[in-house]
Amino acid sequence: MADLQGLADRVVASGEVPGAVVGLTDGRSQWVVAAGTDGPGGAELASDAVFRISSMTKPLAAVLTLQLVETGVLGLQDPIERWLPELAGQRVVRRLDGPLQDTVPAEQSPTVEDLLTMRLGLGFAFEVESCPVLEAAGELGFGPPKPSSVTLDPDRWIARFGELPLMEQPGRHWRYELAYGVLGVLLARASGVALPELFRQRLFEPLGMHDSGFVVPSHARRRLVSGFAGTELFDDAATSDWLTPPAFPDAAGGLVSTAGDYLRFVAALLNGELLRPDLASAMVSDQLTAEQRAGASAQTFLDGGGWGYGVQVVGPRYGWGGGLGTLWYSYPAAGIGAVLMTQVLPPSPATVAAFVDTTETWTS
Fold first, then answer.
1. Architecture, CATH, for domain 2-57+194-362
2. In terms of C-beta density within 10 A (0-12 exposed, 13-18 middle, 19 or more buried), how is residue 232 classed?
3. Which residues form the signal peptide (predicted)?
């Protein structure tokens, strides 16, 4: 506990976040501590504070997908147009910076696995100054937007997606992050259950994650912290976008949670409770080729690591972070997992480094 508190104190002492919650699990027990305040000049931060976990939603969505694979509802190599006919016959632009009308046919339909591995054919492009496809896709949401910034419901969202050409042939390149928005629509259609309810039935209720959801649960509203962009208010807890159901529940980054709740998910992964062994192993194994890891998007987001199904895989650890200041890594050989919860956009490199460096020492 002393090391855990020391880490939380160091994160706050850096001056880049007003407060932090740090948690650790060994798969059986969990320990959670807090330091600092819930905002600049705010009240003392509680260890059960509720945070917007943004892209830490992706690993949960990946587990849901693999559970449906395990039960035979989905197959990893199934073409996604089976459930998303709006995406049948999409075309591909000849150049990333080329006009939307200059296209060639897609050589194949993206598969369920292409969504999990973000090889859909559409995502962030860092190798060009202008990308008309991304500009046209702006209303679909990028990064950690507020839920209200996407006004389309899932059916209209996927229809709009289907009107766009892809940036490249499916399966070829790793690009963050729209694949998981598509994946969320597919999960709801394939299961016949609305995405928030699917999360609740298959993960939140079984694991006791009662403070998690696409909307802050009513009993936890007083524990939601405000979100900041630097020192500027991004989302006020009192009037938060996450207090009302979103038009588009986003599997790429729409959830709120607590350190304790997320550690329950982390522990279940460590213990092999969520998936059969082959799928659990595949989820946390690098699925990318050397060429895909060398791509501009991978170099920006993966920092030399690889990507499994919904998680970064780097050295002895796997996990992922959220653009609003949250981070999780598990070290399976050591049997531990740790989470960091802050709420400042973008995540502080110094904060991330302190978390990674310290948690790695706990495994040696």
1. 3-Layer(aba) Sandwich (3.40)
2. exposed
3. none
